[in-house]
Amino acid sequence: MPSTALLKRDWQKQHVYMIQYPRCRVLPNLSPWSLKLETWLRMADIPFTNINNEFKKFSSKGQVPFVELNGRQIADSNIIIDTLKQEFGKGDMDSSDPKDQSLVRAYTALAEDHLTWAMFAMRWKMDRFNFVLTDDGFGRYFGTGMKKRLNHFMIKRMNKKLVAGRANAQGMGRHSSDELHEIAKETLKSMCIFLGDKPYFGGDRPTTLDATMFGHLAGLVYIPTPNGLLTKYVKETYPNLCQFMERIKEKPLPNLSPWSLKLETWLRMAEIPFTNINNEFKIFSSKGQVPFIELNGRQIADSNIIIETLKHEFGKENMDPTDPKEQSLARAFTALAEDHLTWAMFAMRSKTGGFNFTLTDDGWGRYHGTGMKRRFTQFMLKRMSKRLVTDRANAQGMGRHSPDELHEIAKEALKSMCIFLGDKPYFGGDRATTLDATMFGHLASLIYIPTPNGVPNLFQLLTKYVKETYPNLGQFVERIKEKYWPDWEETCSTMNMNTHHKKE
After folding, report:
1. Which H or E run contains 75?
2. Which terminal CB of the chain, N or C, has fewer other CB atoms within 10 Å?
3. What is the pTM of this model?
4. Average pLDDT, whole number, for the chain?
């Protein structure tokens, strides 16, 4: 029932409590407004806690989602966002140009007041929103037996009131299914044209409009539609919309260093107990390397030397093949990944501004402080990047090539990896080996690190090669991620270096 009484009585100051419907399997939340708001909170890096409304807790306006902040209830996703921008100083997330603001308002209305209501009306006419009653929707929360039947009856009544009745009042509910299909199709076409080849609706960085679009497009991509045609339009006819969805959904890497990601992946594969320690950008091994480990009072550096040492210490030699031919192949493809592809990528990023990502909050920016401290830290990191990346890439040789030449070098390396992997699940065959940890560490950055603005087409093409031209590589990365990084989302969202990766 609508209420102004606080649900969180023991609230923390400047902490947002978001009340929304329970989670479901295909989307974090079936409500596009809830998904929009939670996406925005994540973009803005505002601390928040979700509270399940249990299908019966609503704001004083009768709306979900709503938030509680500093003992105050705020409803309506747009009002919530505007209020939080002011409270947390997030006004710079969006453009201050009046023309840009007018476009944002227009496309927000197109998503929230046009497309979503067309979809609501169409789903009601074609399948009565039966999906929400399944276990992939909200079905698991409805109990069993008589309780489940009663809950289904009540939900169907609520759907009729909330969806059919309001869709008729709004106007979309008065159209036929075919008419609604054409309305939605033309709306998607308009969104596709406006997005164009930009990575985000807001341009080069995600804005509030992107959170809105993600929240309202997600239902088309991730929830089965009655006839599947609109989902097909998003994925095939207007592919930039689907690419945008994946871009928002994907998280960056748990570690931007491919050698660190390789080593932690191997430790997870080998099931060796370990604890991560933050080097705070100033703690290095005696060789000047990161990562390094400490074991039994001894420091060991270099990811390959570390792995060989740990194999011996923990009896993990059987992880890798004993056949000399297979060992020689593993060594050759390790060199292709570590000494060829990754240095080509480093050189290309250094030439096109690709390392600017490390200075953002999705990279390492959140560790750089604010104000003068942030500016000084980032100045020092840029100097360090030049020494560590540009100068070393030149010394290694890759840094002397042009971006176009580096693109061809990387493309050919990926092609060789694709051919070697073939239709095997892992580079090592039927089971994951050290080579697979290496390949994962060095391929993941192509998929999960945002492409630079300097020469975006080159990087977008390489990402496309991994995902489409050489799809077995993209499938391999997902396979490793799913099996050995079940805490990927948690690690990237919380920046916790020691999440529990052994899920029950």
Report:
1. strand 72-75
2. C
3. 0.61
4. 85
